[in-house]
Each structure stands twice: as structure tokens, then as C-alpha cells.
Amino acid sequence: MTTAPLYSLIAFLTGGLLTLMVLTNGTLAVYGTLLFSSWVPHVTGTVAALAILAVLKPKRAKPLRPPLWAYLAGVGGAFTVMLTSATVNTSLALSGTIALGLAGQVVFSLFADIRGLFGLPKKRPSARDLTALGMILSGALLLVLMGGSQ
Q1: Calpha distance 74→85 (Å, rounded)
Q2: What is the pTM of this model?
Q3: Cβ proximity of 92 and 100 under 8 Å
Q4: Domain boundaries, the chain
Q5: Quick check: 79 and 85 in contact, CB under 8 A?
Q6: Which UniProt key words apply to this protein (predicted)?
Q7: In sequence order, what DSSP letters do the residues of 40-93 get, joined into one string?
Q8: Are 41 and 27 in contact (CB under 8 A)?
Q9: Quick one: angle between helices 93-115 and 5-31, nearest 10?
Q10: Residue 31 DSSP SS3
Q11: Is residue 38 packed enough to be buried (19+ CB in 10 Å), middle (13-18) or exposed (0-12)?
């Protein structure tokens, strides 16, 4: 399966935005609390989403309701923001937080593929998947264990 270069660029830029978001939320945690660092971006995002919906007035693709577990994404997002806001202000710093977060995402996504979670088709990891996982974990460990030494 070939991915269009534009989609790869968008995904890469999204990673940069995610890093900026973690830094900003970590800064909010320094001046407030972990709950405050999660509350501000969620309220801001809600207001922005409502404004965009009001302007664009998109039509629903399907009149079907999503599964109930899909509504829990906000809870996971709130905890993710609070936990990353806490870890970015430790010796892990921004790069360690992002690296370990990426490693956790890849591990969980492979687990979800293997088990067929969330309605995904079951898929065994390929040698390429496992090699990529090993490289990501190695890079994360290098950043965490060697990142602070001069």
C-alpha cells in the first residue's frame, strides 16, 4: 500500500504540532495545576471546533451513532494531557516525553492490531513492524538514558 507524499507530510507536521502542544500544556502546568493544563486546551479546542462547525456546516456522512466507547476519547485525552504535562517538567524533558509517548503508541497499536480491538481486523505484526518497534524503543531509550548527559 502506497501512501501519498502529502499524507506523509501532513502526519509529519502533525507530530510537530503535537510536540508544541505538549510543551504548551507543560508550561500551563508549571503556572497552574495538571487539571488546569488539561482543561484549557480542551475548552479552547471545543470552542474552536464549534466555531469551525458553525462556519462550514458539514453534512453528516452517516446518520449512525458511534459505539459508546468512542465517547471515552475525551477522558483519555484529558489524562494524556495531564500526564504529559507532568512528565515534560521532569528530567525526561520534552524529547523524552515525546519519545516514550511514541513508543507507547506503537506498542499499543500493535497490540490492538493483534487482538482486533475497536473493530479493527486482526493482523499479525510483520517483521517490518517489529523492526520499526525495536528502532523506536531503542531511540526512546537513547534519548531518555543519554539525553541529559553532556
Answers
A1: 16
A2: 0.82
A3: yes
A4: 16-57+69-90, 93-150
A5: no
A6: Membrane, Transmembrane, Transmembrane helix
A7: HHHHHHHHHHHHHHHHH-PPPS-SPPPPGGGGGHHHHHHHHHHHHHHHTTSTTH
A8: no
A9: 120
A10: helix
A11: buried
Answer yes or no: are the C-beta atoms of 125 and 113 closer than 8 Å.
yes
- Kindly compute the dihedral angle of the four CA atoms of residues 111, 113, 115, 120, in this order, to the nearest 10 degrees: 140
pLDDT digits (tens, 9 = 90+) for 72-127: 888 999 999 999 999 999 999 999 999 999 999 999 999 999 999 988 999 999 99
Grade residue 148 by pLDDT with cuts at 50, 70 and 90.
low
Tens digit of each residue's pLDDT (9 = 90 or more) over 18-68: 999 999 999 999 999 999 999 999 999 999 999 999 999 888 777 788 888
- Alpha-carbon distance 97 to 77, whole Å? 16
Q: Which residue has the cell 508549571?
A: 30
